[in-house]
């Protein structure tokens, strides 16, 4: 499908922090690089020029004719949550800049689960820094810091995010906090973690870029740590110009043009694979592999696992002779002979190489760290009463599981 030519204006917040501004511009460059032929502009809510209204007016002056129905430009906010900027400031700027033109306005980055992917990667990186000892997730308390807003929905979304990170990463606990406007504050959540007996606390900011919020956070953590010398405290980095964030912006843009839209379902063709006696390659032997391999075995697949190390469950399956575990680093050559591939390594570069090799060999591959970069999705499945229910969602696996369970309950009632 040819890429639409409708211009895109990315609406950022604005900062005086040189590093934060550079991170913002780097992200916009990634978006522009993925949309050849599309005029991608950047405007700001405050502090930095051009403002959103000016950026929008400038792209509309050069916008191609979209025909009688389509928008003449799309504005996508580079903000995590709903709030005053999303509901008032940016729409007001769009109204001032659009003149008589038709302009579509997209929603914020959350609740897209790819934001959580980046956040968890920052946390994992801080748990195992280059310049210090590694911390086990199960021994570490995390204080997850949001911006804080007068908008109740935005604050409640932060609590939900904290719970998801806790469950997915196996941390000792995750305590939500806010850097401004509402409570609990960062010092309050740090104290709550210490009062619960935490000796290792990782403070994780859910901020897009460096700026005054990041500066305030480091100041508050330093002040608290000075009065609690018996507790080890680390601070993770901001999300930054991650590829997943760029992908969300691009998807928000395309949704407004109807090329990818909410309500249209996941962009896959549903089918059932008969894997009885067929070779299936699983790269990686961690938590994801532990969940997927039993269902592959139940389908009769001959599972071949390639990973330098394995979790308890996969190691047990190998000892029982149920899977062939090759204890080494994976190579693109490993896809040879496979009918189906799961790239489930904790190294994105390895997953990318495996997925590319599978693509070149016309082998369907699920890339577990970045679903859209693979050629297949794994549905949420459950069997019961002679039925197997499968749900394929569009990047929200927990929602797929809830719908799957509800469908199965209804069909069995």
Automatic annotation (TrEMBL):
<dbReference type="InterPro" id="IPR006367">
    <property type="entry name" value="Sirohaem_synthase_N"/>
</dbReference>
<keyword id="KW-0456">Lyase</keyword>
<dbReference type="GO" id="GO:0016829">
    <property type="term" value="F:lyase activity"/>
</dbReference>
<keyword id="KW-0627">Porphyrin biosynthesis</keyword>
<dbReference type="InterPro" id="IPR050963">
    <property type="entry name" value="Sirohydro_Cobaltochel/CbiX"/>
</dbReference>
<dbReference type="Pfam" id="PF13241">
    <property type="entry name" value="NAD_binding_7"/>
</dbReference>
<dbReference type="InterPro" id="IPR002762">
    <property type="entry name" value="CbiX-like"/>
</dbReference>
<comment type="pathway">
    <text>Porphyrin-containing compound metabolism; siroheme biosynthesis; sirohydrochlorin from precorrin-2: step 1/1.</text>
</comment>
<dbReference type="Pfam" id="PF01903">
    <property type="entry name" value="CbiX"/>
</dbReference>
<keyword id="KW-0560">Oxidoreductase</keyword>
<dbReference type="InterPro" id="IPR036291">
    <property type="entry name" value="NAD(P)-bd_dom_sf"/>
</dbReference>
<keyword id="KW-0479">Metal-binding</keyword>
<dbReference type="GO" id="GO:0019354">
    <property type="term" value="P:siroheme biosynthetic process"/>
</dbReference>
<dbReference type="GO" id="GO:0046872">
    <property type="term" value="F:metal ion binding"/>
</dbReference>
<keyword id="KW-0520">NAD</keyword>
<protein>
    <recommendedName>
        <fullName>precorrin-2 dehydrogenase</fullName>
        <ecNumber>1.3.1.76</ecNumber>
    </recommendedName>
</protein>
<dbReference type="GO" id="GO:0043115">
    <property type="term" value="F:precorrin-2 dehydrogenase activity"/>
</dbReference>
């Amino acid at each position: 499908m040819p890429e639409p030519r409708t211009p895109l204006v990315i609406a950022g917040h604005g900062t005086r922090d040189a590093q934060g501004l550079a991170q913002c511009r780097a992200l916009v460059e990634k978006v522009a690089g993925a949309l050849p032929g599309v005029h991608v502009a950047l405007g700001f809510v405050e502090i930095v020029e051009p403002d959103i209204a000016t950026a929008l007016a400038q792209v509309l002056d050069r916008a191609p004719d979209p025909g009688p129905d389509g928008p003449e430009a799309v504005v996508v906010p580079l903000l995590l949550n709903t709030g005053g900027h999303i509901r008032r400031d940016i729409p007001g700027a769009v109204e001032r800049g659009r003149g008589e033109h038709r302009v579509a306005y997209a929603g914020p980055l959350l609740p897209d689960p790819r934001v959580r992917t980046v956040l968890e990667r920052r946390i994992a990186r801080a748990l195992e820094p280059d310049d210090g000892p590694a911390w086990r997730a199960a021994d570490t308390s995390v204080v997850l810091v949001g911006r804080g807003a007068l908008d109740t929905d935005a604050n409640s979304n932060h609590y939900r995010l904290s719970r998801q990170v806790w469950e997915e990463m196996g941390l000792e606990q995750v305590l939500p906090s806010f850097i401004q406007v509402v409570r609990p504050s960062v010092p309050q959540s740090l104290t709550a973690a210490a009062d619960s007996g935490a000796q290792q606390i990782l403070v994780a900011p859910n901020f897009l870029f460096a700026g005054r919020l990041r500066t305030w956070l480091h100041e508050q953590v330093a002040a608290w740590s000075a009065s609690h010398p018996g507790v080890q405290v680390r601070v993770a980095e901001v999300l930054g110009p991650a590829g997943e964030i760029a992908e969300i912006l691009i998807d928000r843009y395309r949704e407004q043009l109807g090329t990818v839209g909410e309500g249209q379902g996941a962009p896959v063709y549903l089918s059932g694979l008969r894997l009885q006696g067929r070779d299936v390659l699983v790269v990686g032997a961690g938590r994801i592999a532990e969940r997927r391999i039993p269902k592959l075995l139940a389908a009769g697949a001959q599972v071949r696992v390639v990973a330098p190390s394995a979790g308890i469950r996969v190691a047990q399956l190998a000892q029982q002779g149920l899977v062939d575990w090759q204890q080494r680093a994976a190579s693109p050559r490993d896809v040879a002979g496979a009918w189906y591939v799961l790239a489930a390594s904790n190294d994105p570069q390895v997953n990318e190489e495996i997925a590319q090799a599978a693509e070149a060999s016309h082998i369907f591959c699920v890339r577990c760290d970045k679903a859209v970069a693979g050629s297949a999705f794994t549905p949420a499945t459950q069997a019961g009463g002679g039925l197997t229910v499968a749900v394929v969602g569009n990047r929200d696996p927990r929602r797929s599981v809830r719908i799957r369970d509800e469908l199965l309950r209804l069909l069995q009632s």
